[in-house]
Amino acid sequence: MTTSQIHYGGDYNPEQWPRDVWEEDYAAFDLAAIDTVTIGVFAWAHVQPAEDVYDFTMLDAIVQRAVEGGRKIVLATPTGAMPPWLAHEYPEVNRTDFQGRRHVYGQRHNHCPNAPAYQRLSAELADRIAARYTGTPGLIAWHVANEYGGPDGSCYCDHCAAAFRVWLRGRYRDLDELNEAWNTMFWSHLFTDWEQIVPPNALSEHWRGPNHTAFQGITLDYRRFMSDALLANFVSEKERIRRHDAATPVTTNFMGPFRPIDYHRWAPHLDLATWDNYPPGQREEVRMAFSHDLMRGLKDGAPFWVMEQTPTITASRDVNPVKRPGVLGLWSWQAIAHGADGVLYFQMRQSRGACEKYHGAVLDHAGRTDTRAFKEIAYLGHQLQELGDAVLGARVPARTAVIFDWDSWWTTEMTDGFNRHVSYLGVVLGYYGALWRANAAVDVVPCTADLSGYDIVIAPALHVVKGDIADRLRAVVERGGTVVTSFWAGRADESARAFLMDAPGPFGDLFGVRVEETDSAPPGEANTVTLALRGDPTPSAASLVFEILEPEGAEVIGTYQQDFYAGRAAVTRRRAGAGEAWYVGTDLDPNGLDTIVRTVLERHQLLGPHADNPDLEVVDREGMNGTYRFLLDHAAATVEIQHISPPPNPDFTDETSHP
Amino acid sequence: MTTSQIHYGGDYNPEQWPRDVWEEDYAAFDLAAIDTVTIGVFAWAHVQPAEDVYDFTMLDAIVQRAVEGGRKIVLATPTGAMPPWLAHEYPEVNRTDFQGRRHVYGQRHNHCPNAPAYQRLSAELADRIAARYTGTPGLIAWHVANEYGGPDGSCYCDHCAAAFRVWLRGRYRDLDELNEAWNTMFWSHLFTDWEQIVPPNALSEHWRGPNHTAFQGITLDYRRFMSDALLANFVSEKERIRRHDAATPVTTNFMGPFRPIDYHRWAPHLDLATWDNYPPGQREEVRMAFSHDLMRGLKDGAPFWVMEQTPTITASRDVNPVKRPGVLGLWSWQAIAHGADGVLYFQMRQSRGACEKYHGAVLDHAGRTDTRAFKEIAYLGHQLQELGDAVLGARVPARTAVIFDWDSWWTTEMTDGFNRHVSYLGVVLGYYGALWRANAAVDVVPCTADLSGYDIVIAPALHVVKGDIADRLRAVVERGGTVVTSFWAGRADESARAFLMDAPGPFGDLFGVRVEETDSAPPGEANTVTLALRGDPTPSAASLVFEILEPEGAEVIGTYQQDFYAGRAAVTRRRAGAGEAWYVGTDLDPNGLDTIVRTVLERHQLLGPHADNPDLEVVDREGMNGTYRFLLDHAAATVEIQHISPPPNPDFTDETSHP
Amino acid sequence: MTTSQIHYGGDYNPEQWPRDVWEEDYAAFDLAAIDTVTIGVFAWAHVQPAEDVYDFTMLDAIVQRAVEGGRKIVLATPTGAMPPWLAHEYPEVNRTDFQGRRHVYGQRHNHCPNAPAYQRLSAELADRIAARYTGTPGLIAWHVANEYGGPDGSCYCDHCAAAFRVWLRGRYRDLDELNEAWNTMFWSHLFTDWEQIVPPNALSEHWRGPNHTAFQGITLDYRRFMSDALLANFVSEKERIRRHDAATPVTTNFMGPFRPIDYHRWAPHLDLATWDNYPPGQREEVRMAFSHDLMRGLKDGAPFWVMEQTPTITASRDVNPVKRPGVLGLWSWQAIAHGADGVLYFQMRQSRGACEKYHGAVLDHAGRTDTRAFKEIAYLGHQLQELGDAVLGARVPARTAVIFDWDSWWTTEMTDGFNRHVSYLGVVLGYYGALWRANAAVDVVPCTADLSGYDIVIAPALHVVKGDIADRLRAVVERGGTVVTSFWAGRADESARAFLMDAPGPFGDLFGVRVEETDSAPPGEANTVTLALRGDPTPSAASLVFEILEPEGAEVIGTYQQDFYAGRAAVTRRRAGAGEAWYVGTDLDPNGLDTIVRTVLERHQLLGPHADNPDLEVVDREGMNGTYRFLLDHAAATVEIQHISPPPNPDFTDETSHP
What is the pLDDT of residues C48-90, one digit of tens each? Predict the structure, then answer.
């Protein structure tokens, strides 16, 4: 079995099955050219059946069988799901939820990150596993815990309250600084003792839910703190692994644009970015492309892995349709096109019981290898085998960056005063979608990223202004590049406080505009904006948020057509030397965004190939073996791969179709 | 006053009224030919005003007045609503809800079944009441407590946790067997001590609500346990009654298809099935007919009673329309037609205060006897008087059975992976409705029922396979009968684990089919199925669930017309000798179900009379006095009763109309 | 700066800003002719930074600057928002919510009114503030706490339970009387010890939410108790103020028709009615007019103030549109027309952080005075300056009264049996809207009001009959007046018990009608009613509730056209001498209500001017300087003021338009 190829396989739980089934599994793996298994994700209960008992008999056998089978191994620390004895003996390891309720044992991904027992025992377990399996043939990565932060992300117990206070003491010089940052003079919240500070939840600062807080500053800090607390769990395990294994990459599986965790805060601590791709619908190509680019951006463009995807259905939706013919291949190749060096499944064999028993798997309950699903899995396996190492390690070069910022995500969605129907991710996906339809290569990056390599930087709703981002955006324009931002940009400082100046705050000079009023409307009500671009384009629908702009150096590109601000500016562009700074003050429909984005792309000659076909995605991946172009037809569910530079290797040109 | 007639009257609470009102009551009972009163349902507080004080003064007077009035008496133990002192002195008698919150005093039907104080005091009270009133003239039944399990059904307190562990030790040999049954290797749930097991609720295995559990096996066992725990309360009281009264039937009022309680587990312990009929809407004839047949099926077809219905409005809906003219009679006669020997009301006189003060009653707040409602009540009373004992004890013979299974109900609705918009009861009512429209006589039976007397057995969505049900269904086919099942059948064992074989699991051989894929769609999206029956019927809409069937011995009867599985089998029929086994892999519209069901009925010559009139229900009841046919017109709200065998008694033929 | 004018200004929080900003503020106040500042509302944390430390340095400076600036001062006790130390040291000051959860520190308006620490410290603080600032030049009112009862109103802790029992002992002679009032024989609730009584919430008598209770009597008493408990907080502070200041009016800001607090129980304790006007939508003229009239009715027609309104947007809605041009003036003048002597804003300067940072303000984050919003604020300020004392103290005479009753509000909306889609406020606004469209002057009064001065009394859904209201309504008719009521009237006594007689209970004789049945339908289903008025008017849609009326002395005015009660009475009128009593048994559409209301108004020659223009509101205000007529065009957002009696002062006639 070749190891120099895209990693292909996935989560494998033979501990749930008798030994004779293992042999059936490996026979099926061979049929499907599966070369990689992820082992041990839910193994805590059997490797440590009691606090003082470690028993590696089963895990040894599983690992040994994988080694014998010549598979690549991704070895998990099993700390994503706690065993019953742990919760029973140390009740504090169970989270206290947003409602303030301490939970008891159940489910998974629900430990309190600040519980001493969890911290101690998870690190100890990682240490023992690393000690035992470091050096295992085929071991290609350590997979720490599982989907940190899911499903709800936060704990609000007394341990967390205490840890939050410690975290705050590290962030603020003293209570005066904290009071200033949180603007506690509002509503008489002046804290005079650190002990007075409690976690913000339904029993304290919140009403309705996590997005409604009396103090954005408190909640924003708590989100950062909780993201850091879970990160500390990861780092603690990683350190213990590194005591034994200095080289093998250590990762944990992320979840794309997952709100509870700021992956940009985590990224430096991972050796490799991996993520689980479970899109909510059946036509999610834009969201998936964005997610791939976001994940790739975590490690400066280095290849990432899809650690999990389902071969057939998910089990957790209200409605769980099967993947249509060809979709399994299409979505896998999309991942590879965007930079994945691994496409792995959850799971190799369907569980016999519990909530994921109908989650798709390589092998169903009957173990069939003659179903449509298995045939598509095997077909893809053989395609990947044939592709070999052609694109391994290859990059996806881009001259356009989209800035994605968890602080802005958190802050905009917990802020009263505008429009609760706007989602930050939705706004970003609006711009990303326009770039995607134009087949422009894009990096999705944090606001701390080096922007010097980009011609175009799009920072939709960049609400929170941190560090020198205003200066670095200005630098893009000054060297002839283009910057685009939208409504809600430049409104809040790092503590979610308003700037004491016109919106867009510190970005005002760059864009040459000020926001005089911010109007809102419910979904379904629209204004119209005409854009003075490309001659006389179709008017675009504008909805939800309507900033009435007053140009102060910018030219007016788009104007509202209705309401009392008919004729006022909705979209502006400031030219500064060879550069341009665009401000879009309303939520434009795709037609409007396409017009603006393509105007900008054309200025830099970055409009991609086949930009006239809205179903055809084209992505180039460049590496040691040249450039491969992936043509992904999301309507037909077909894929074409071209070796465009150096001239195509005649040994590999392929087009998928379902077998 | 005749006692040999359908019991007519209902819940009577004179303890809420001064004595002079009692005389008004009895005068009105005479006017309406009311011969039965249910006494004592909410009497706990006045018969036992403190733990060590029993005071029967009031109850004695109430009973004495009923005896003087020559009424039949249904005497309740008042343990459905606890008095304040009990909750105050023994807080553990208040339930801990699904959210984990221990309640305090309020409402009713909310005791913890495992609270020692409740167990002790309710049994003691039943004992004293039985001791005092056994032998009362006219006493026709003991009515234990009230509507067990309502409104939410379950308690999750520490007493229940402990009792659950005891119950589990009775069910499973050891923890190994339990771990195997619950498939606890999934998500590292291996229990190593019984004390680690906690009730499954919002603080442990559940998210979103009672239908979302990480471990179906745990939740399924908890539902069974809770049903059994409440049953133990009933049995405990019944035993105390039997110490004094060896003969009078003991019952409790059920609620038709009520999900929290598995009435099939309870039925052997009751002497008589009774139920409360409060349909949610104004045209519920199918649901009510089903419920009557389900309740009649609890005691092998013996007559049951409608213990409660409202004369006018319910009070608990968001909108509470009055019963239209004639509906009171229509629905009462429907119950009688389906086997009821009693039609009783809640309540005789409207309560002056509290949440049911506007619930309908025989006598309204003004005590009027000249209203439309009272006139209809009295008219029905006189009709019943005239009918006398004509149908008392008569049966409703049926050669078609529908299998209804609480385990399948619970399991399908807590299972991830298919479609959360499907309701088990809805699926069963789909098939039952087709039978109803065809005026076929139906028994609704548990999967443990003797099936040897049926020509047709329809087992929609028989998801959980228990005992020898597969063999017994096969036997029906082998002797020339017809069996019908649907999607989701044969999927789970008694512990809700998947069978390690193709769906429909152990039913696969019988139906000669396997399910290759199970697709789902949200409500509103439909496929189309054409059925090769009756020439070329109109295509039927198929929705929600789409099993792609691979015949393995069956012939294809219905095929999908759309999507990638157009042309694949949706409905199959396997002929085996003279018998047939039908499998319906999707949720067909009424047109499709009618086509299938009528094809089957015609094969056995069981299509009923007037099957072409969708509003006209025809039911025959056979007994000592011959066969009476009830023609119930649900559009016109009229009833005709024919004595069809032996030739009609000229003394009794009637047609209701509102007075 | 003139003091003899409508108070203009609002909430001012300079403690949140450095001193140099204060000077900018006052410069802007001058520009906008702002003469009044409300100070100290959220000052608790800085005037009392610890239990034993009072520090008035900041508040002294703020007051001093206002005095220097010649402003009128409204001085708040800052007890609406507790400081962290208070909640930390005395956890019982945090409310226990409807779910039974004790909260921890956060938000505001959330103290337990029965917490000893809150009671003691709030009174002490009021005392110290009054001691210090009594006699301050320009001090025109004391503003105690803030928006009592918001946002959720009630606490359910053990302190409250104990205080509730004390309150009940004051209301009921003994437990027998209490049991009788609550009808506790229902569901075995006979209380035998006061300690058995617990607050009615989600853990006791309630399901689904605050509107679903097993015992309306208990919940009704708890609402009264909680309203009284908060009132006791107010009274306690007021008493402490009065120890120092015998003369300055003491008020607190109400919230119009705010369900949790019975403002009629509070009104006698206030010297002045004030309220905060935050309508939920953009066309709320009827609701606002009603609210003004309700607030004016609290103090027998004396002028009130709008204590808060937003200059631009609210921040707390899901969608927060800006006020359209002219609307700020239009709504302010509407308040003045209806009797306001003050129109004040929340807030003078936008907060830098926390949940109201985008709530509208006189000065935005940039402090601009050149925006549309500021210009409209300043324009209005100068208009008010020009108006001077012309209408100060003037009254709004009315010969029509609408009765509004919190007990009926609470009771109808917590009662099972009719239709949960009906809102009491909605019903009242239906009738009020018809009066408003007819430009009839209206007083909104409690059922205890002196009705002798009214020609017309409209008492929609006057469900709870208290005291001698039936006699007083009868007296209106007997002296030739007209009384109108609607469905649900006369149903319940003070304990929410049904009257043991036909509906409308004690009102039956007066209206000459009885309700035979009460039918209901969901929203969207309608019956039709034809009214025998004005020749042959268009039939009106009737919805939700359908009382089938039996005239007993009344004539039939409206009849149902559909359903089984087609032809039965829906609307009746009883003539008694020169008087009339109308009963409207269903929820008529505006057309139907207009027809009835105008018929009544015309009878008394009370139809107002311009009654044919549904957008034009006309209100007269009469005082020392004669009568001013306000013509408010809610479509055009313009206002015209006419001095109609004595003949207009040529110095003041104005028409607003946006500047």
Answer: 999 999 999 999 999 999 999 999 999 999 999 999 999 999 9
Tens digit of each residue's pLDDT (9 = 90 or more) over B45-104: 999 999 999 999 999 999 999 999 999 999 999 999 999 999 999 999 999 999 999 999
Cβ(A92)–Cβ(A159) below 8 Å? yes
Amino acid at A276: D
- What is the residue-averaged pLDDT of chain B? 96
Question: Which amino acid type is present at position A282?
Answer: Q
What's the pLDDT tens digit per position in A570-600?
999 999 999 999 999 999 999 999 999 999 9
Answer for the pair A190, A132: CB distance below 8 angstroms, yes or no: no
Beta-strand relationship, C579-584 and C482-486: parallel
Chains that touch B (3 or more CB pairs under 8 A): A, C
C-chain residues near A183 (CB < 8 A):
16, 351-354, 357
- Judged by a CB distance cut-off of 8 A, whether residue B191 touches chain A is yes
Which residue segments constitute the domains of chain B, with CATH numbers given?
A: 7-82+138-153+248-387 (3.20.20.80), 158-221 (no CATH), 400-603 (3.40.50.880)
Interface test with B, best of A346, A352, A376 (most B CBs within 10 A): A352
* Catalytic one of C147, C237, C376, C547: C147
Grade residue A287 by pLDDT with cuts at 50, 70 and 90: very high
Catalytic residue status for B284: no
Please tell me the predicted confidence (pLDDT) of residue A536. Answer: 67
| Residue bearing tokens 């705010």 | C258
Check residue C506 and give its pLDDT. 98
Catalytic one of B92, B205, B308, B376: B308
Give C11 to chain A, closest Cα distance, Å.
12
Contacting C residues, span 151-180, partner chain A, CB-CB under 8 Å: 151
* Residues within 8 A of A (CB atoms), B 91-110 only: 99-100
Nearest C-alpha in B relative to A85: B196
pLDDT higher than threshold 50 for residue C472:
yes
Residue C359: is its pLDDT beyond 80? yes
Q: Do C350 and A213 touch (CB under 8 A)?
A: no
Question: Which residues of B fall within a CB distance of 8 Å from A50?
Answer: 192
Q: Tell me the CA distances in angstroms from B303 to B143, B384, B393, one per residue in order.
A: 16, 16, 6
> What's the DSSP call for residue B46?
H
- Any CB–CB contact under 8 A between A211 and chain C? no
Beta bridge partner(s), residue C363 = C349
Whether C413 contacts chain B with CB within 8 A = no
> Quick check: ipTM above 0.85?
yes
Q: Are B25 and B364 in contact (CB under 8 A)?
A: no
**Main-chain dihedrals φ then ψ at residue C142, nearest 5 degrees:** -100, 135
Q: CB of C448 within 8 Å of any CB in chain B?
A: no
Segment A181-229, tens digit of pLDDT: 999 999 999 999 999 999 999 999 999 999 999 999 999 999 999 999 9
* Distance (Å, whole) CA B349 – CA B363: 5
**Buried-exposed string C539-565: b where 16+ CB fall within 10 A, e elsewhere:** bbbbbbbbbbbbbebbebbbbbbebbb
Q: How far is C59 from chain A (nearest CA, A)?
A: 13
Number of H helices and number of E strands within chain B? Answer: 17, 24
Closest CA to B127 of B43, B39, B236: B236
Q: Does C84 touch chain A (CB under 8 A)?
A: yes
Q: Which of residues 526-565 of C touch B (CB under 8 A)?
A: 564
Please provide the average confidence, as pLDDT, over all residues in chain A.
96
Phi, psi for A120 (deg, rounded to 5): -65, -50
Mutate to test the interface with A, among B188, B499, B514, B568 (most CBs of A within 10 A): B188
Chain centroid to CA C204: 30
pLDDT digits (tens, 9 = 90+) for C531-584: 999 766 789 999 999 999 999 999 999 999 999 999 999 999 999 999 999 999
